Amino acid sequence: MVTTAQAVLGGEVAVLVVGFAYAALADLRTREVSDRLWQVMGLLGLALGTVGVAGGGVLPTALWILVGGFALQHVFAWDELLGADGAGAADVIEMVAYGVVLVVVIVSAIHYGISAMGVPWAVVAVLISVLFARGLFEAGILYGGADAKALMIAAVILPTFSSVVVPLPASFAGVLNSVPFAVDLLMNAALLAIVIPIGLAIRNAARHEFRWPDGFTGYMLPVSQLPHRFVWLEDPLAHGARERDEIETSEDDQRVRERQAAELSAKGVTRVWVTPQIPFLVLMAAGAVAAVLAGNLVLDLIALA
Fold this sequence. Notes:
Blueprint: H1 4-30, H2 35-53, H3 58-72, H4 87-112, H5 121-138, H6 145-157, H7 170-178, H8 181-192, H9 195-206, E1 219-222, E2 231-233, H10 240-246, H11 250-266, E3 271-276, H12 280-294, H13 297-304
Antiparallel strand pairs: 1-3, 2-3
């Protein structure tokens, strides 16, 4: 018989995997991921998490809703309600929200402890994940706002996860259960990124077009295909870097590549070297699946060493 906890966990995993798969496909096809997706996923995660912590009483439930709602506000454009001149006020409101949530969770942990009846570890894991994602975004490590939002929503859906499919040593199970799932996801995504240069090198070698060291980061593409691929032009235009600065939307990107293709065709150039624009969200989706199947790949490698 399936318990409530098992049903909640199954629902959380399903929302996470299906949602991230859809987001990755959308990002690959259009380079756009609607906030509506994160909103739906986040609300489902908040609802499932509420069911999961409700057995602990009013305090754990209230704290979960507080921290979950705090994470979700990042994917709702509530600042637009303040009008065109409300950007400064929105920043102040958000700073106050960060401070209030931190104080409430810390004071509650001191008075009631971190437990199912006090402050659930899921609440702490979500708060850590939000601060982690926001810090990486502000530092420019997570370049796109969508990546930071995805990490926060992943935390709401699945704060922690130790029920991996691949067996792990008992000593690692406790560590995996305490590390926020969003951290595992991000570490896995970073590790899986090594597949990209390896795959490009194999592709170029098979077509006898490998060159060092660019063969690990790009490939040759017919100029006629340039407007239809999400790529960065590496040669022969010297002003490619400047044109990247002009790009803010996928439509801008399309227009730049169309102009580049026209200029190259006029010069008689038929093939150019390009770098693929691989969305980090695709790696995050792969990292999420890997985290569900095998936990933290870095810890797995350490355990096997």
